[in-house]
């Protein structure tokens, strides 16, 4: 019997196909999803991985057997699936493993209105039901099976996004986009159609084996080609999407990466211009700059734990207009509180095109501090090493500690956060300071304790 503890994660289902899960299991997940959501209709989409169409269709068969009508939107980005869930007001399932290698696949599930399904909001119940059916046999079909039909929502998705950002009066821009053979190659041409943008497309061929590089733009190795193309062509900006195109990473006209915190601050300022006084959500690893910019523009910064379920819950509770994470996930109230890198990218292009200067000059106001990036250390005792770090800093004058998510230590001119990985024996360290020399000093001190 499959070990669901290995594939049902905190926020999604993910594992190797067919070793850890297959179409038979996908069908049971579809039936369980229908049972737990109690919905008589669902929407399903999938990415370009070789196993995705079969898994998605099997999930739909399982849902239809339990009496739910199924709308299959076919190839789509994850945020396109969220659009369909919001616009159609249906629970949804997206088949993707994001930037994982080709042999992996997964399911991101949401309730109607793109509300997330995680361990505490239905995923644990779905797992328990599938495990029961694996042990006792699949449930009998409903008296009336649901119908399965296809629907293309790409044009509607693109039209909705471009309705949220006015790009009609911007100056012409040359933009390089690296889709990494992922779903950006499917969505970008339609979203950018009709905009004053000269598109230089890289790796737009949909190929779930990722022949050119991993579709994970947060790894510097995977944006080297994009950086080189931007420099070689004199482009105004470069964009890199991950495999399911829900995250977007930006490089400026020099080919230099723009930190996601700077994008968060820039978009926050633009959103606050539309809704003065609103709350803006940011996780605790984003730059000090974010909360500073939010306050400067009359908004209220709200600090949360890392992870989309925490961001979305806080957005729903506070009515926040926007939220951003250090991992290049960007959440919008106007997009059902769901994350869409594409909408963030449109904001960046609008901000760039509304003024004459280069992107590097524009974002400099939103990139005020030095940072380490995420530094991972493999350790045998996560809790013990973290406790040792806490002990080393607990009694220092002028230093405060909090444990909202891992350990955050803050001084006047620096802060760091040390968090355990949920899936690997790693401690993740992020540091920010007013200058790079201080970053290096704090890094060396913390790592000496972590790595013993």
TrEMBL record:
Its cofactor is Mg(2+). The keyword Magnesium applies. GO terms for biological process: carbohydrate metabolic process. Residues 6-130, 156-255, 263-369 form the Alpha-D-phosphohexomutase alpha/beta/alpha domain. GO terms for molecular function: intramolecular phosphotransferase activity; metal ion binding. Keywords: Isomerase, Magnesium, Metal-binding, Phosphoprotein. SUPFAM superfamilies: Phosphoglucomutase, C-terminal domain, Phosphoglucomutase, first 3 domains. Transmembrane segments: none annotated. Residues 374-447 form the Alpha-D-phosphohexomutase C-terminal domain. It comes from the Bacteria. The keyword Amino-acid biosynthesis does not apply. Signal peptide: none annotated. Belongs to the phosphohexose mutase family. This is Phosphomannomutase/phosphoglucomutase.
């Amino acid at each position: 019997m499959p070990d669901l503890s290995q594939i049902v994660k905190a926020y999604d289902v993910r594992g190797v196909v067919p070793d850890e899960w297959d179409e038979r299991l996908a069908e049971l997940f579809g039936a369980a999803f229908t049972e737990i959501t109690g919905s008589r209709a669902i929407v399903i989409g999938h990415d370009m991985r070789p196993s995705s169409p079969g898994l998605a269709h099997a999930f739909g068969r399982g849902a239809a057997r339990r009496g739910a009508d199924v709308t299959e939107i076919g190839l789509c980005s994850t945020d396109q699936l969220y659009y369909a869930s919001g616009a159609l007001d249906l629970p949804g399932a997206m088949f993707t493993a994001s930037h994982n290698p080709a042999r992996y696949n997964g399911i991101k599930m949401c309730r109607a209105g793109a509300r997330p399904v995680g361990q505490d909001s239905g995923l644990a119940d779905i797992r328990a039901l599938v495990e029961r059916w694996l042990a006792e046999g699949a449930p009998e079909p409903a008296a009336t099976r649901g119908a399965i039909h296809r629907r293309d929502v790409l044009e509607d998705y693109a039209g909705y996004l471009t309705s949220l950002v006015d790009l009609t009066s911007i100056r012409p821009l040359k933009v390089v986009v690296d889709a990494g053979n992922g779903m950006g190659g499917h969505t970008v041409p339609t979203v950018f159609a009709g905009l004053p943008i000269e598109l230089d497309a890289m790796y737009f061929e949909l190929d779930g084996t990722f022949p050119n590089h991993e579709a994970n733009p947060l790894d510097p190795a995977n944006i080297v080609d994009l950086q080189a193309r931007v420099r070689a062509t004199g482009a105004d900006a470069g964009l890199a999407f991950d495999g399911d195109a829900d995250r977007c990473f930006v490089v400026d006209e020099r080919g230099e990466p723009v930190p996601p915190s700077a994008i968060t601050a820039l978009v926050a300022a633009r959103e606050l211009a539309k809704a003065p006084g609103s709350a803006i959500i940011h996780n605790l690893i984003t730059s000090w700059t974010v909360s500073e910019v939010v306050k400067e523009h009359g908004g209220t910064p709200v600090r949360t734990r890392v992870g989309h379920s925490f961001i979305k819950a806080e957005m729903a509770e506070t009515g926040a207009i926007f939220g951003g994470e250090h991992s290049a996930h960007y959440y919008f109230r106007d997009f059902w509180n769901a994350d869409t890198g594409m909408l963030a990218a449109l904001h960046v292009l609008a901000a760039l095109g509304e003024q004459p200067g280069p992107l590097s000059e524009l974002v400099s106001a939103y990139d005020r501090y030095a940072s380490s990036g995420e530094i991972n250390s493999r350790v045998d005792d996560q809790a013990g090493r973290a406790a040792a770090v806490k002990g080393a800093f607990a009694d220092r004058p002028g230093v405060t500690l909090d444990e909202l998510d891992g350990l955050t230590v803050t001084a006047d001119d620096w802060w760091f956060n040390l968090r355990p990985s949920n899936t690997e024996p790693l401690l993740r360290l992020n540091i920010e300071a007013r200058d790079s020399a201080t970053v290096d000093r704090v890094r060396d001190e913390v790592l000496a304790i972590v790595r013993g």
